[in-house]
Each structure stands twice: as C-alpha cells, then as structure tokens.
Amino acid sequence: MSFWEYLITRHQQLLTDAFQHVSAVFQCMVIATVLGVIIGVVSYRSGWGGSLAITSTATILTIPSLAAIGLLIPLVGLGVAPTVITLTLYGLLPIVRNSIVGLRGVDPSLVDAATGIGMSRTARLCRVELPLAWPPILTGIRVSTQMLMGIAAIAAYASGPGLGNEIFRGIASLGSANAINQVLAGTLGIVILALLFDAAYVLLGRLTIPRGIRA
Amino acid sequence: MSPSHQSGSGKGPAAPTRPPGEHDVKGHAFHDEESDPSPAPAAPERRITWRKLVVLPAVLAVILVITYVWITNIHLDSIAENSLSGGNVQLRWWQHVRLTAISTFWVLIIAIPLGIALTRRRLRKAAPAFTALANVGQATPAIGLLALLVIWLGIGPRTAIIGIVIYAVLPVLSNTVAGLRAIEPNMIEAARGMGMSGRGVLLKVELPLAVPLILAGVRTALVLNVGTATLATFGGGGGLGDLITSGIQTQRMPVLIIGSVLTVVLALLVDWLASLAELALTPRGLEER
C-alpha cells in the first residue's frame, strides 16, 4: 500500500489522532501558560524567588520525559493523567523564565509613571507590566508548544492520546508493509501540526501585541 | 559674571538639574567617571562554590539510597526479579552512559566546525537555509525520527546513536552560529586592523570569545542526548529506557521505578558535571558580571 493510499483509507483514524494530539497539547499549554505567568508574577520581584522558580523548572526540563512519565504511572496510572501532568510540567519552564525576564525587563520609569498617574499595584501589573512583557512570554509559549508536540508523541507509550500512537503502532509492527506508512503518517502529522501552531502564534502575536511596542 | 558664563566650569548652577554623577558641560550631559553606577568588582568570587559541589550529589545520593533500601525490602515476583538481577541494571546504566557519550562526541564534531564554517564569508549565504532546516527539525518528534531510522537502517545501537546525533546537531549548530554572530564586529575589525589574517582572527579572537558558547553547546548536547537515549530502547539500542518500557509492558512497578529513578539521577548528574565544566573552563575575562 502506498503512503497516499494509506492516508486515504485511514484518514478517519488519523484525523481523530491528530485532533486528540492538538487538543491535549493545547489544553496543557493553556494550563502551563496560566500557571507559568502566575509563577512569574509572584516571583519576579525577589531575586531568590525568581532564581528558585527558574532553577526548579529547569531541573524538571533536564529530566527525560520518558522517565517523568515512568515515575507518574505508579502514582496516577496509565492514560490521560500522566500525559497531562507531564505536558503541563514541561511546558512551564520556557514560560516561567520568559515571564520573569520579560517582567524584569520593563523600564522602571514606565512603572513609575503608572504609579504617578495613580494606578494601583494590580492595575500597573495588568495594564502596564504584563502587556510590555507579553512578547517574550509569547515566545516562551511558542517554544513550549514545539517541545510539547514531541513529548506528547512519547506519552502515547503510556496509553496517552494522539499521533504518537501511530508511531508506536509502526514500531510494534516493524517489518510489516504498513510500518513505514504508520511511522511516516505520525511523524509528518506532528511536524505539520507543530508548524500550524507556530503560524497561529505569529497571528496571535499580531493581534495581541500592543501597537505601541511592536518592533 | 552672568550665570551663562559659569556653565562651562562643570559646577555651575545648571548642575543640580542633572541626575547624580552627571555634570553640565556647555549645556551637554557629561558623565562622571568615578560615580558610574556599577561599582568596580570587589574581591573576585570563587566560581565553584562548595554548595554547588555538594548539594546536588548529596540529593542524588539520598534518592539512590532510598530507592535501594525500598527495592531490597519489597517482595519481587519472578518477572521483576528477572529484569533487575544478574547485572541487568548495571548493564543498562552503562549502555545509557555510552550512548550519551558517543552521541555527544559526534554532535560536537559535526556541529561546531559546521557552525564556524557557516559564519565565514563564503558560506554565510547558506546559513538561512540551515536556520529554516533547524526550525523544521525542532518540530520533528524524536521518537518519529528514530522510528524512521530503524525502518531504514535496522535495529541496533548504531541506529540509535545516529538518531540521537541527528536530533541534537541542529540545536547545537544554531547556538554556535548565533554565538559567533553575536561577537562584536568592532573586535573583529580591531583584530583586522592590527593586521591579523582571517585565520588569525578566528583562532585568536573569535574562538576564545566563543568558548562560553561552545561549552553551553556541550551542555545542551549532553542533556538532550541523555533524554533521547531513553528512546534508544525502541530501536533496540538498550539503555535505561529498556527498564522503563519493560516495566510498563509487564506492569511491574518496581522495574519501572528503578528505570525512571536511575534515568533521572543520570540526567541530573550529567547536567551537574557539564555545569561544573562550564564554570571551570570559561575564561575569567568573559564571565558575566
């Protein structure tokens, strides 16, 4: 069976896998973004708080994802739970680091000005500091998403959802005629989805980065 | 004397309107050298502190001891016993170390010279193509790449190493290129102006300035490769991934936990060693202040 025929006969299965892959990565990215920005906001003012946040998330990233999944299985079982926890944890680091760097990079005179016109601490954060720190945070989100696309593929080994199942089906049937089609469909599918995500982020950047600070 | 004549003295009446450390010289701001906001560095700090040397190995040792005590005190059935006895664990550990070391060696051999070549004048035009390739490469899942290589080259450690190398070359390459580009053009021009040849500039100016970056590349490659080497098991390459996958397949949690804990320990240990090397080998003049 040629690759093309394979795609046509299995398109139902492939589309389901692709949708589940995107939906898992997207939902975990939303959680990771919210958590990451909160961690950034809480810790960027203190020197040791910021470095603690960055060091601990960097340590998590050093751990191979298969080992992290392996450690979670005895605790939460197979399936969706270890996938979601792993993806969220790994997605945190670039976002936490870029939020802290971005928030620290805001020109203090602008914050002073905001205080000067009577803004409260919350208003300063929401209307001045976070919008100015948004471009680096968005970069962190992009980096995270790229990484999670690959980790989600590995999580399929622990019965997680997504296109990784296609790859592992191919590995399990090495030597059969369909092995290459399955692996190729899974891999190319993930590459395409990752590039689509990236394009979506570029668009999101266009829409959400305030006009005044665009490069 | 009218005030306008006094302003040239640097301590005229206009001075108080300037921020501290600035004089008013003929209407222009003039920085005071001494009151530069960044004070001269005090006694040089020791780069490798005892905390850095002790904390992580101590934590890892505690983790290993706890795991060892736990595993010797629980009942293992025959399947788990088989996977963990007879030196199998040691074998997987060393396979993993070897996979990581060999693949890191090749990554550096390939990526650093290629990075230098891509910043030379003749090949500079090829660099954007490599950047684009690096972007697509980053989107490729490691497991998919490895599976394709296995289908193409057959199973075995060689295939696994090739896969690990391919996966790590692009990030290290793009780091090297970015770092060499970030060197101030002034420095290169100054070296040129002193009459250095292109080779002299590369060997005596650019490479020494790029040392921190190359060390960072080594660390990146090592950490990435420890991680990718866990996937070698899917290509028959052995390593600690073997314990993890057989633990999942046979549903023997002790095997799974031993495999995962050892992988975590190895990854953190490798990162720690690389960070020490980074600190010890960076030229003093290039440290971040």
TrEMBL record, chain A:
A Pfam family the protein falls into:
BPD_transp_1
Family note: Belongs to the binding-protein-dependent transport system permease family.
- What keyword terms does UniProt attach to this protein? Membrane, Transmembrane, Transmembrane helix, Transport
- The organism's place on the tree of life at top rank: Bacteria
Q: Name one GO cellular component term.
A: plasma membrane
What name has this protein been given in UniProt?
A: ABC transporter permease
Single GO biological process annotation from the record = transmembrane transport
InterPro entries hit by this protein: ABC_transp_perm/SBD (IPR051204), MetI-like (IPR000515), MetI-like_sf (IPR035906)
Cellular compartment(s): Cell membrane; Membrane
Q: What is its main location?
A: membrane
> Locate the ABC transmembrane type-1 domain: which residues?
18-201
* Topology with respect to the bilayer: Multi-pass membrane protein
Ribonucleoprotein as a keyword? no
Membrane-spanning residues:
24-44, 51-73, 179-204
- Record PROSITE patterns: ABC_TM1
UniProtKB/TrEMBL annotation, chain B:
Under Gene3D superfamilies, the record lists: MetI-like
Name used for this protein in its record: ABC transporter permease
- Cellular component GO terms, alphabetical: plasma membrane
Membrane topology type? Multi-pass membrane protein
Q: Give start-end ranges for the coiled-coil region(s).
A: none
Membrane spanning stretches = 53-76, 96-118, 130-155, 161-180, 201-218, 224-243, 255-274
> Which Gene Ontology biological process is one annotated for this entry?
glycine betaine transport
Q: Which organism is it from?
A: Streptomyces sp. JL1001
